[in-house]
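Your task:
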Amino acid sequence: MLLVLSVCSLFIGVLDVNISELLNGNKQQWETFLISRLPRLLAILCTGVGMSVAGLIMQQLCMNKFVSPTTGATISSAQFGILLALLFMPASTIWGRAIFAFVTAILGTWIFVWFIQRIKFKDVVMVPLVGIMFGNIINGITNFLAYKFEMTQALSSWLVGHFSMVMRGRYEIVYLVVPLVILAFIFANHFNIVGMGKDFSKNLGVHYNFVLFMGLSIAAMITASVVVVVGSISYIGLIVPNVVAMFKGDKIRGTLADTALFGAIFVLSCDMIGRVVIAPFELPIELIVGILGSIVFIALLLYRLKNGCKAVKPVTSLKGGNSK
């Protein structure tokens, strides 16, 4: 399905690109294909894979299915870093803005996790609500500074995610997602152990704090690299891991590949919908993902509230002993 959608995506857009003209060596169509369509497809695939894997890592490490770059203040922190780069380094390149975004995204995610670890009485819903409130505080500071220094219009490009401006020479930083996802595959078992708790990790000889901060840093850097190129795209890291977990279970090693593939399919499908609905105009992918994501998020929330607290049946010994 991903291969079929990828091929179809290359030939959807305002300018007509067809295979026969490409085979005939049409220069204009080849320029459109290589400068716009192919880079856009690669950025979409990296975004879908990266944001989904980042969400899966954060959910596993925080032991909560509703934690993601959206509800964990990671996206908000990355936007704040971009604003700082625009304020203090107006002439900075996309790599300069990315460095600011990396630092603030990592710090924001660490602060969020540090805070929720000190909440003694927390349930499945409270943790993401804390993250949403923390993210709104960061957004408030970002918007205030942008308004005060007249940077609102300059910052708007990163507030709403879209792929319309993705072209050769302006998207390559999103390739950082690839080594970070590979690193996530390598340490998948460690993330799974850390997700079972601090005491369990120590018993198995896994350095809890090191793996925790490494996993959060990977998720934050993936998110920041996507935000710098594409902008803010909510819900991907929340929806995709939960949907895959319903069918494949919660073990991160067994679901990481499926989560990455389904994330790429989900983002690519939403982008194609945005290009077709009001063609020749284009809807931002943030709008499509936001609508679908809100519906699925509410459904997941109701499902978890209804089925997440069922009493565990007593275990009976194989020899017919008393229930425990």
In short: The two ends are 47 Å apart (CA to CA). DSSP finds 14 helices and no strands in the chain. Confidence is low (pLDDT under 50) at residues 309-324.
